[in-house]
What does this fold into?
Amino acid sequence: MDARVSCSNPSAVAASFDLGAWSRHHLECVEQALSQWIAPDAPAGLGAAMRYAVLDGGKRLRPLLVLAASEAVAGLPEAALRAACAVELIHAYSLVHDDMPCMDNDVLRRGKPTVHVQFGQAQALLAGDALQALAFELLVPEGAGIPDHVQAALCRLLARAAGAEGMAGGQAIDLASVGVALDEAQLRQMHRLKTGALLQASVAMGAACGCADAAAQAALARYGAALGLAFQVVDDILDVTQDSATLGKTAGKDAASDKPTYVSLLGLQRARAHADELLGQALAALAASGLSDTRALQALAEMVVNRSN
Amino acid sequence: MDARVSCSNPSAVAASFDLGAWSRHHLECVEQALSQWIAPDAPAGLGAAMRYAVLDGGKRLRPLLVLAASEAVAGLPEAALRAACAVELIHAYSLVHDDMPCMDNDVLRRGKPTVHVQFGQAQALLAGDALQALAFELLVPEGAGIPDHVQAALCRLLARAAGAEGMAGGQAIDLASVGVALDEAQLRQMHRLKTGALLQASVAMGAACGCADAAAQAALARYGAALGLAFQVVDDILDVTQDSATLGKTAGKDAASDKPTYVSLLGLQRARAHADELLGQALAALAASGLSDTRALQALAEMVVNRSN
It folds into this structure.
């Protein structure tokens, strides 16, 4: 847990912004750090299950948001990298538990058998539990030069976003909503918690690694909220417009399981317009933040709305 | 999360020590705080499942250890109460997940249907996940007057004790050990992680609420380690010597499921002697701690070894 992984920012000096290059560099840091921090030798195969659940897969949107927000406020790189990995561990554990037979009963994830298929349900349950604990452990290292108030703030943001008033609460609403007609406010509330809370926390945690003023923090919070909702609207659109191969997961699943979605509620065209509107809100928040370089955050928001998988 | 619950210490001025009175007073504080901090209105029944899993039950040994250790080092009462509740939430979530069909498949706990029987497996899984997040959230309140370095230290101790190198790792070894002949070192390692880590963390977290010197901290760590092992040895003894009604859970379960225990390894008489020896180690550590009042810790260790359920 004392390992240091440095992650400088080559794009900061570039005149124009290349999201691809920026992402590749930062993803390399994140992958290396995750691999270092998820010990393979955890007892009785638990480490193997944890690594399987996290490594070699995923778009890593949340870590990239943490790192982009941290760079926008000149945050501590070590704190940002730890926060980036912690958020990804929470996301990864939620997928492991979500895929289990008592939840979504998914057998494939990122083109591989899901953790419970590969390691058994009990080990999947434990691996998810251990990943959540590890997420918090990463945020409170001794001797890494991260001020105590930053460590505490990062834990606070992550715990709130992961718990009953965040991700877990959103999943509970999701469970209860199968076959139920939600209105737009209820659907928004579900997604605000289920996926929005952790996306928004990613931005807030990045911001907590530096010392943005209150106005900048409020602007980044608005950015995170809009981006979190936009992510889900686009997810719902892709579920009906893309095939499974492009998505890397089962397409048409929401409709098949009679889950309410933005598309079922608004129709495809209005859902698309809503996503664009949310992108506009996110970009407007950045423009009003007073921060000098928000190009990575801007490019990530555009990528979220215009992605094809 | 901003609620304050005060918990003064009436026993500190008493000449002799009455563990019963001390425990009753402190348990009242803990119950009240837990009830206040586990919000009933978490979405879609999640709050109800979380409260069901935690409230009105359990010996609360871990919270009492936190509070006793904190008092021994004149720790901050608010920090200690939060730490006490956080440790109990981790313990409670581990029971919820442990009871699930894919793990121990238990239908009764503390005389009530287990959480998954009462609320369904998916809700039980989510409730456990949300309880873990809440445990960390309790440790990092804003505006509660707990110094940042104490908040960070408490998170660090709890995360390590709960994760792959602690409780979750011990559970993974336990899973893998059914029907396997373990030697004493392997059995000790399993229990050191599965139950010992959280018991030891309870003592260490209590100590982290004050400012014990290094020698006192080391002594408390030895106390916690000995007590953690003693707890498990006694658990194994009670599993074969008590009936289910006395235990409040299914007796003889370890033997029936062919799990290795201290009794199956050492025999009843040597297991009993081993528990007494560990109690001696715990009390010797307290005596060497240099702390002026360790009566509650002492009485709790005696209670752990001499309990009948």
Q: What stands out?
A: The CA atoms of residues 188 and 229 of chain A lie 7 Å apart. The longest strand of chain A covers residues 108-109. The beta strands of chain A are 108-109, 112-113.
